[in-house]
């Protein structure tokens, strides 16, 4: 896509990956609406990238609709929507329903609302692009993070469905699926799941660079950690072996000394 002059929304852009995306896209000449739940951090990023701050909660359909409308009103277009806001919810099936619900709303419904309010205008003009920040957790699995993993699989499935349904109508949907990225979110979750996440973590600026480069070729899967492609293939072609190795990882992390 042509970035100079493009009208772009980035959600959850007050911190981490969203902030890095806003900087990278602005450096390429895009006009950015910077959303975050936290008004002060949205304002700080907007000021840094010369964009427009728009505080709002992406789990609230009214806020999502207002954000989409603001971009059309202020920029006269909405070319790229980076649905990046999300929540890391650790736990297992024993984790309370409120946490499961919160993961569902933050990681899935936020993107359902985005697509709902983006698609009518995009379908009318025959063009639009959704970059969905999912996670490698939405393609594989992560110890100790059931609500996050399950909801991110649904985010991934939603993006697949949108692409499968609307690709012929000019709608490009892409998923950004990194493993660990050095952001405040990683600081919160890494101690609760795999030390692997921290060991292989990369900087948000690298994630943003890979994502913005991938806008040029429309590929669905954007993998800042290239090894994820290999594990995803193994999951599909040798599912039982892949699951056994994941079980081994879970056991090791639980201190059970797996030899799998
Ligand atoms: N950090 C990682 O290791 C990692 C890896 C893979 C995927 N991700 C995904 O990347 C995305 C960004 O995470 P990050 O690591 O940059 O986290 P982060 O905590 O640094 O930033 C997330 C930002 O989103 C905002 N936010 C949260 N809920 C929101 C809501 N409902 N509406 C609007 N804004 C909201 C927060 O205020 C925060 O500023 C998330 O979807 C996350 O699941 C992160």
From TrEMBL:
Top-level division of the source organism's lineage: Bacteria
Pfam families: adh_short
CDD domains, A to Z: SDR_c (cd05233)
Keywords, in A-Z order: Oxidoreductase
CC per GO annotation: membrane
MF (Gene Ontology): oxidoreductase activity
InterPro entries: NAD(P)-bd_dom_sf, Sc_DH/Rdtase_CS, SDR_fam
Keyword Lyase: no
Presence of keyword Chaperone: no
Family the UniProt entry places it in: Belongs to the short-chain dehydrogenases/reductases (SDR) family.
Protein name per UniProt: Dehydrogenase
Lineage, broadest ranks: Bacteria, Bacillati, Actinomycetota, Actinomycetes, Micromonosporales
